[in-house]
Design a protein that fits this description.
Elements (H helix, E strand, L loop, with lengths): L1 H4 L1 H24 L12 E4 L6 H11 L3 E2 L2 H4 L5 H8 L27 H4 L17 H18 L3 E3 L8 H7 L4 E6 L2 H16 L13 H4 L4 H22 L7 E5 H6 L1 H14 L24 H12 L1
Parallel strand pairs: 1-3, 1-4, 2-3, 4-5
Helix pairs in contact: 5-7, 9-11, 9-14, 11-14
């Protein structure tokens, strides 16, 4: 009945299934040897939702010649490396317009979170995944897909999907070459942006939006202003715990602070470039980036809710 009532939805689902299962074998050709070390370390961006990761990714990929999954690649999520080999979707990309909506960018060249690619390897629910919960066969396909992308781009690949923050154990174990960029933002500003997103999506502040840490059922019993602060705090506690538990050395992580980044993006890019070079991951420069970004300081949510959130954060 649903297929008849919604033929477009059925067609899209059919195309999604076909894209995944018909293209996935291409990765076995592009990266046949799973035991071979990756030529370049993959780079994973970590942090809380609404922490500034999309802007950071847009600037980083404007400034540094890194590979990344674009919206065009994501149309080929069953084997984005195959799309890179055939079309080189980002080879002639223009500079970013630095726009996005809830982390989603517009245009074929723009960086994509590409959840469809990630869900080939990781479950949807619960969002947090321990190492002992992953399927080794899926993780083998994960490593192969990353290896295929690395070979196809012939340079390091930056992955921007903050749900990686909930999959660190598996990433660090199956991709031990990985580098991690952790983005931080003032937690009140971060919480403000989360509440603003809730209102835009749900028309109110009560619905949970985006990443669910393991303590989600406990957090849902809190009022909205406390939920968002704890969502941020739990996410960063999880990042710290899982990086440590996975034995990721300090020299393989880079901490990026959103406020400093907005004040002086070129300095942040220089520091990131030095970090990559230190990890035997030298990359070419692509172009110049803006000298600064204006941060929005106005309260754009219910004022009483904002004050309650600020008081909670201070406590």
């Amino acid at each position: 009945m649903n297929r008849c009532l919604y033929p477009r939805s059925y067609a899209q689902r059919t195309l999604t299934v076909a894209t995944r299962f018909l293209l996935e074998p291409a990765e076995r050709v592009l990266a046949p040897n799973l035991d071979q070390p990756l030529r370049y370390p993959p780079i994973f961006l970590l942090g809380a939702p609404r922490s500034g990761s999309t802007l950071a990714t847009q600037v980083i990929t404007d400034a540094l010649d890194l590979g990344y999954i674009s919206n065009r690649h994501c149309q080929w999520f069953g084997a984005p490396a195959f799309a890179e080999r055939l079309f080189h979707p980002t080879a002639q990309r223009p500079s970013s317009d630095y726009r996005s909506t809830h982390g989603q960018t517009n245009g074929p060249y723009a960086p994509a979170e590409c959840g469809k690619w990630w869900y080939r390897f990781f479950r949807r629910k619960p969002s947090y995944v321990r190492l002992d919960e992953v399927d080794p066969r899926r993780m083998a396909r994960f490593r192969r897909s990353v290896a295929a992308l690395t070979e196809s781009f012939d340079r390091p690949v930056l992955f921007k999907n903050l749900y990686a923050s909930l999959r660190i154990q598996a990433i660090a174990h199956y991709l031990p070459e990985s580098l991690f960029v952790v983005i931080h933002r003032n937690e009140v500003d971060n919480g403000h942006s989360l509440l603003e997103s809730r209102y835009r999506v749900f028309g109110g502040y009560e619905g949970w939006w985006s990443m669910e840490p393991p303590e989600i059922e406990v957090l849902k019993r809190l009022p909205a202003h406390a939920q968002v602060i704890e969502q941020v705090r739990n996410t960063y506690a999880l990042i710290e715990n899982d990086l440590a538990a996975s034995g990721v050395p300090a020299f393989r992580r880079f901490d990026l602070y959103y406020e400093d980044f907005c004040v002086d993006p070129p300095s942040a890019i220089n520091a990131l470039d030095e970090f990559l070079t230190m990890n035997s991951c030298s990359v070419a420069r692509r172009g110049n980036v803006p000298t600064s970004f204006q941060r929005r300081n106005a309260v754009r949510i219910d004022k009483a809710l904002y004050e309650a959130m600020s008081d909670y954060a201070r406590r």
